[in-house]
Amino acid sequence: MRRLIWLLGVALAASPAAAQNVLKIGQIEAQTGPNAIYGYMSSQGLALAVNEVNKAGGFKVGDKTYTIQLMASDTRGDPKEASIQLKRMLETDGVKFVFGPFLSNVFVTVEPYAKQFNGKFLMMGGATRIHDFIGTPEHDFLIRTWNWDAGPRGFGNLMVDRLLKETGAKKVAMLFQNDQGGKVLVDIYTPLFKEKGIETQLEMFEPGTKDFSAVLAKLAAGKPDYLFPSYSDAHLYDIVRQSTEGNYFRKFFLVRGSLGPGLKSKDEIDDYFVYVPKYFEQAEKTDPKVAKFIADYKAFYKRDFPYDQAPLCSSSCYDHLFMLIAAMQKAGTVDDVAKIRKELLSMTYEGLWKIRFDEKGEEIFNFDVVRLQRGGKIGVSSIDVQ
Amino acid sequence: MLQLLVGQTLNGVIVGTLYGIIALGVTLTFGITGIVNFALGEFMMIGAYVTWYLFDVAGLPFPIAIGPAVAAAALCGFAADQLLFRFTRNNLINGLLVSIGLISIIEAAALLLWTTTPKDMGYVLSGAVRLGDTSLPKMKLVVFALLAAVMFLTYAALSRTWMGRAAYAYAQNPEAAMLMGVRTEGLQSAVVVYSTALAGFGGALYATLYSLEPSMGGLYILKGVEAAILGGIGSLIGSLAGGIILGVTEAVGSIYLPSAFRDAYGLIFVVAILLYRPSGLFGAER
User: Fold this and answer.
1) Considering only CB atoms, which chain A residues are within 8 Å of B115?
2) In chain B, N or C terminus with fewer CB closer than 10 Å?
3) What is the pLDDT of residue A1?
4) What does residue A379 show for φ and ψ, rounded to 5 degrees?
5) Among all residues of chain B, which has the CA nearest to that of A182?
6) Does B107 reach chain A within 8 Å, measured CB to CB?
7) Chain A, nearest residue to B15 by Cα
8) What are the distances in angstroms from CA B149 to CA A104, B101, B247?
């Protein structure tokens, strides 16, 4: 009996040592909700990457092998819920690496709290508003996992250039939600269009709006060439459908949101000009890494691959976990976040995307522009911003 | 500009009938049970999701999908009445609290079942009818016709059937109606179930026009209550008129004023009317 108690004691004493070889990764993303389009895919991709790492027996840093424990619960896009989850991760669970958030309203809510932990953890999120804080004092914890819109390599800038070159558009109507995300888009794109001599019209709509007929009719009366709507599929489905049914707009220009709303109304639209981090349908045929990712996704989730949403995996998702592990291996530590950050910022990673970060910690990756035209005809151009 | 105004007035009329069907449920329930059922928007959501499921997932034709959707809303309404509302008859505050609690329960169940990610139902009827330079989607016209027909049928049933007249009698003088042999318990339950069925029918039609989220009911019950108050609580025609006025005010207001405050335009109009007619446009003066 004594021997058994002794053995149990040894086993219990050994278990904390085993726990040290588990790396906790947190994620604060909206997996469901009206604005969950980005968070949903990020949570799917990260869970898949964690499964692959653990299935392979973990990863080595120095002479230790680590497996990953993913702590990802659904914020539903609610900043309060995200704050509670982040607090629990940082204070109770001792998480040092947090993926997300993608939503700007969530980020601006958690930012004052998160910066108290500056230097103690890394937050790898895609939120547009992260751009305003990254590289500023007390914000070394930030890494932005999405291309910035403006500037010479900015994807928005390149998208507007392309719109101008390919269509000669002279006037664009912007229709955004009256919230943090919508206002950021107004601030970025109004000067971008102006610089290139494109006239703009602007209307904001109330969150929760379902019938857009009146505002669409009002915008259409100004006879713009393209409608540049919203940033989430929740509204885009309603906007695209009502635009075409009411004969207000048949040409769309998008820098947020997916191909889905355009495909659903493919026989009603004339042009659906959309920024897509990767056009998976085409990449699957030419890139073995993409083909493997799709096969792994189907096997892991036991369902069809969401081609229309998968491009959003470019943000805080699959590649970023492998990139983080590579940075840890180069830094020789899983604890020293400053060293790991330095390695992340100095590396170029070739995964599903070719990814690197600028000196502030903002991501630069190549992307695709997809033009969907009436009847479902699709044209894809790859843009190299490296 | 005239074309824009005409187009949006017509659109406002159509959208307003959706507010009107909820307002009709509100006014019926209040008249007979003495409570404002704020959970009616949730029964609309049930009708909408069941329709989406049967049409998009199960592949049933839309006219067949409507029946089970309305039945599901009515069945949930019956359960809510027997388990909850039965104990709050003619008690406005208790009824209000129970209906608010019910909103949380139904919404939480919808979140579990369908998550908050919006569902966008496939086209039931595509294309638009052109009236001069104005285009009106065919489905919106069908929705308007069906909702208006149901509202007028309800009006006819209430004025021409024994049950309808009993309901009117009870609304005017409950004691006298009871003495005349009206079975009040059954009548009240029937009205609660019918108003939830109406909301379910509204939801089934809503699903053909807009994407669905579990929180959709909250917005529509507010519009329904606004429309019922504007038209005058107790007036069936007032419900339809209140809904249409609200829809037109929002649509036309959005043309001339920033659309970011769309919901406020209808509310300002309601307040302005109530200052002059506290019982609403069609409500009986006291």
Assistant:
1) 32-33
2) C
3) 47
4) -120, 135
5) B260
6) no
7) A211
8) 45, 32, 18
Per CB-CB distance under 8 Å, the chain B contacts of A76 are 116
State how far the Cα of B107 lies from the Cα of B116, in Å rounded to an integer: 10
Supply the DSSP string of B89-128, one letter for each residue. TT-HHHHHHHHHHHHHHHHHHHHHHH-SS-B-PPPSS--E
Can you tell me whether residue A317 is helix, strand or coil?
coil
Look at residue B74 and tell me whether its pLDDT is greater than 50. Answer: yes
- Dihedral (CA of A297, A303, A306, A309) sign: negative
The Cα B36–Cα B14 span in angstroms is 25
Q: Give the integer Cα–Cα distance in Å for A244 and B57.
A: 25
Q: What is the pLDDT of residue B159?
A: 86
Q: Which residues of A touch B (CB under 8 A)?
A: 32-34, 36, 40, 76, 178, 203-206, 208-211, 213-215, 217-218, 221, 233-234, 237-238, 241-242, 245-247, 264, 268
Kindly determine whether residue B259 and residue A32, on different chains, have CB atoms separated by under 8 Å: no
**Residue B242 to chain A, least CA–CA distance (Å):** 18
Helix axes of A180-195 and A155-167: crossing angle, nearest 10 degrees: 50
> Residue A142: which of A124, A120, A117, A116 has the closest Cα?
A124
Gyration radius from chain A CA atoms: 22
Q: pLDDT tens across A75-107, in order?
A: 988 999 999 999 999 999 999 999 999 998 899
How far apart are alpha carbons B266 and B19 in whole angstroms?
12
Per-residue pLDDT tens over the stretch B200-243: 999 999 999 999 988 888 888 999 999 999 999 888 889 999 99
Nearest to B237 by CA among B34, B20, B33, B35: B20
Contact B116 A76 (CB under 8 A): yes
Upper half-sphere CA count for residue A38 (Cβ side, 13 Å) = 28
Segment (H or E) for A345? helix A337-346
Q: Which residues contact B133 (CB under 8 A, 6 or more apart)?
A: B3, B7
CB B54 within 8 A of CB B212: no
Please name the amino acid found at residue A297.
Y
Supply the DSSP string of A46-104, one letter for each residue. HHHHHHHHHHTT-EEETTEEEEEEEEEEE-TT-HHHHHHHHHIIIIIS---EEE----H
Interface test with A, best of B143, B210, B215 (most A CBs within 10 A): B210
CB contact under 8 A, A234 and B261: no
Starting at the edge strand found earlier in the chain, the sheet holding A22-29 runs A59-61, A64-74, A22-29, A97-99, A122-125, A142-144
Question: What distance in Å separates the CA atoms of residue A129 and residue B135, rounded to the nearest whole number?
Answer: 39
Distance, CA of B4 to CA of A69 (rounded, Å): 57
Confidence of residue B144 (pLDDT cuts 50, 70, 90): very high
- Which secondary structure element, helix H or strand E, spans residue A274, and what is its range? strand A271-276
CA-to-CA distance for A22 and B217, rounded, in angstroms? 44
Model-wide pTM > 0.90 = no
Spatial contact of B99 and B30, defined as CB atoms under 8 Å apart: no
Provide the shortest C-alpha distance from residue B158 to chain A (in Å).
Answer: 32
B284, B42 in Cβ contact below 8 A?
no
